[in-house]
Amino acid sequence: MDINFMKIALDLAKKGEGQVSPNPLVGAVIVKDAKIIGKGYHKEFGKNHAEINAILDAKDPLLGATMYVTLEPCTVFKKTPPCVDRIIKEGFKRVVIAQKDPNQAINGNGIKRLKNAGIDVEVGILGEEACKLNAFYNYNMKTKKPFISIKAAMTFDGKIADMRGESKWITSEDSRNLGMYLRFIHDAILVGAETIRHDNPHLDIRGYEKKRPYYKIIISKKLYIPENLNVFKTSGETIIFCGKDADQISIKNLEDRGVIVFQNKTSSNIDADFIRNKLFEKGIGSILIEGGASVFANFIEPNAINRMYLFYAPIIFGKGVSAFGKITPRYINNPMKLDICEYKRIGTDFFVQGEVCSPD
């Protein structure tokens, strides 16, 4: 029974994707006499947490009930009061928790306070599933860096564009719709200057209403970016990274238009750590990199990638722009490895999601 109720809580938590960052995804289910009497999830950053929404949803008295929650109840007062206080006040008999909160301000404190109040606490039911659901948040808390994903749409022979550099469209509309969802669940999308100049993308989110801030990030060493590009016409904050050789007048002109410019004043290169540190300081917890090949290599080389979303269309170019052709060659004894966690057909295409394995 515990597993079944926790599965429901996990499904509820997933509904908060794209809307609660930097907070975690959390779902809660309240059960009394083997019957669900309340459900809730964290719907929006700054609003009620899952536990409170479940309590407010309950139609029956809560005294003696059991709460199933996907993450340890919070003990700190920030945007909302501590959930653990309300749980104790309502007289719950038992609290089942999937995952302990890695946030050091909470980490185990919620469990301890519940136990000290005489509540029976069990931790770890579907814990692995809960950790996977909050991969972005867990990584943020443990490393103080954003979780970085690559999204690549390519041919069966790994080309993201033909010999002319054309890529519209390699994959199907179904794949592109899933790509929009991936943008929606991340805090930011990142591309290189060549992609911006050649494809002139909007870098927006279509089909989803995102209530959290959304960032469009561009890497341009010398800041060669035309001012009339589509990226400057769509919603969301634009951030550009440039090197020491970038023109100061161009920087000022962009900043006057509301663009945030981060310049590496010590090098013409813009390494992954410089980008990750600046973006995490700004509160960005997850980044979706969409190209091109040089940008992929810039993050793959220093092992800065956490996840890959790969879309394969059933076509072959032979010659063209290889998605990963600019990384340092690797051999059979030391390839980059992925732990495949999902694969499926999407329209006419094939989709693979993999977590990047730590280097040996």
Automatic annotation (TrEMBL):
Protein origin, superkingdom: Bacteria
Co-factor: note: Binds 1 zinc ion.
PROSITE patterns: CYT_DCMP_DEAMINASES_1, CYT_DCMP_DEAMINASES_2
GO molecular function: 5-amino-6-(5-phosphoribosylamino)uracil reductase activity; diaminohydroxyphosphoribosylaminopyrimidine deaminase activity; zinc ion binding
Keywords attached to this entry: Hydrolase, Metal-binding, Multifunctional enzyme, NADP, Oxidoreductase, Riboflavin biosynthesis, Zinc
Pathway(s) of this molecule: Cofactor biosynthesis; riboflavin biosynthesis; 5-amino-6-(D-ribitylamino)uracil from GTP: step 2/4; Cofactor biosynthesis; riboflavin biosynthesis; 5-amino-6-(D-ribitylamino)uracil from GTP: step 3/4
Residues the record marks as active site: 51
UniProt binding sites for substrate: 167, 183, 203, 206, 290
Domain CMP/dCMP-type deaminase: 1-122
Cofactors named for this entry: Zn(2+)
Binding site for NADP(+): 153, 169, 195, 199
BP terms from Gene Ontology: riboflavin biosynthetic process
Family: In the C-terminal section; belongs to the HTP reductase family.
Entries under PANTHER family matching the protein: 2,5-DIAMINO-6-RIBOSYLAMINO-4(3H)-PYRIMIDINONE 5'-PHOSPHATE REDUCTASE, DIHYDROFOLATE REDUCTASE FAMILY PROTEIN (AFU_ORTHOLOGUE AFUA_8G06820)
Designated name of the protein: Riboflavin biosynthesis protein RibD
Originating species: candidate division TA06 bacterium
Name of the encoding gene: ribD
